[in-house]
Amino acid sequence: MSILQDIKDTFQQPNNTLKKLILINVIVFVVLIVLRLLLYYTVGEAGFQYLMSFIELHSSPSVLLTRPWTLITYFFTHQGFLHIIFNMLNLYWFGQLVREYLGDKKLLSLYVLGGIAGGILYLLTYNFIPYFEDRAANSVMIGASASVLAIVVAAATLLPNYTFNLILIGPVRIKYIALFLVILSISGAVGDNAGGNIAHLGGALIGWVFIKQLQRGSDLGRPLHAIFDFFTGLFHRRPKLKVTHRSNTAFKGKSNGSATSSVGKPSQKEIDLILDKISSSGYESLSKEEKQKLFQASQKE
Q: Domain 15-223 in CATH: superfamily?
């Protein structure tokens, strides 16, 4: 029962998007393992494949029209141990960076937009490129790789000179790790997992575009934020309105009528300048004041 309580606590904690994403992927993975075992021993393999058809992304547009939610569910679904382990490790390592510098909302936006972009590129490729015509009828896709690669490339675009210490290799700048993963996906775009690797490239592209647009002052995830906030509001009770009387003397001493809550919050222009400095010179080049502003911005998100 303590495991269930730990899961409940994780979802109740604020500013915990990275752990929630990993936990959702793991829960879906475990549930599918159990259901696969039960269905194989009862109704056979066909029963499990029928179940999967409601969460995996099919390359046929007609199937997608009847199950549009699969454009989302596919990037929370894994079947192989190595598949989910590799994806979740990369999500954790690179997601920590994105979360630290940009905040939880932008991490979630990257994950969702990367998965959607990967799915759309997969559908377009399998339906408009002649090489894939014979495969399109029976092709399906699952896995969070496109979402994860979007976060990897976003982190590398934002902090290209940040280094990870890799086992047996030593310190490596993350821009080279991202480049290696992109080249690996390009090389696999004509193999047995062509659809998956094509989706990876869609995620990588959205990761790069997301950061470049953010540095120009445009947040591609803003429409998603509005959707998330709407659905979040449906499951939270609004506090009852309470009218109180406060003496005007409480505001004496405030210059220019400004509230103290707004003091110290950096503007978007200041954050963009700091992000540009990180991109060109690395996080270590920031002053103590700039680091504090970046921290305040991430808390605000």
A: Rhomboid-like (1.20.1540.10)
